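Take a minute with the sequence and fold tokens given here and flag any structure token that looks odd. Thanks in advance.
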Amino acid sequence: MTLDANIPAAARILCVEDDREIAALLTELLREHGFAPRFVSSAAAMNDLLQREQVDLIMLDVMLPDEDGMSICRRLRQISTVPIIMVTAKGEDIDRILGLELGADDYVVKPFNPRELVARIRALLRRSQLHPALIAARQAPMTFEGWRIEPATRTLFDPDRVKITLTSAEFDILLAFCRNAGRVLSREQLIELAHGGQAGPVERSIDVHISRIRQKIEPGAKSWTLIKTVRLGGYVFTPRVETIDDAR
């Protein structure tokens, strides 16, 4: 087993899954790859566990006995930025897109390839952790249109200095835009810049994340001006971005 230096030792993975057979298989898989799995079979049990301890990532089944995974995802996103992978037997585009729109960072369909699942978990954990070498070189906050984004703490503040909640994927994409302001970026380039080449379920999940970012940085806008769509090209971040050296 090869450990990734960018992933915390024994990363705690909370699996919300009511199928005992799948839970047993995931337990063995996650432990084999150096993770520390926690398993619960209902939303109520998940709520209790999250009150007692912190987790690094949540794998969330859509079909649960007391509350559906979509509702849980929406609720979690109101209070937390913990990475979420939706795990479901539903493979239709509408289900996947809905999960991403509600704040999931990734979406895996059963039956899944074990190696692919582990790769997705590692990629998401890497994106959600602070990388010391990267922070040392690129930790300076940036501002645009009164907004302030802080790579070191992975936080975003609006012009009134109110902290805005972003998912891990949303933050990575917005940060990539800020570091490449004025440059037309294709979906493939955004995946590479924001995700290190580790795409979500499909390339067009980028569109879902960008839609959510737009709604957060231009609430109530009738047309988007900060992130513009370039026909046959991708997207361009239009505002002037300035790097600031002083601490907030």
Observations:
- The CA atoms of residues 33 and 66 lie 30 Å apart.
- Residues 1-8, 130-137, 197-202 have pLDDT under 50 and may be disordered.
- The first strand starts at residue 12 and ends at 16.
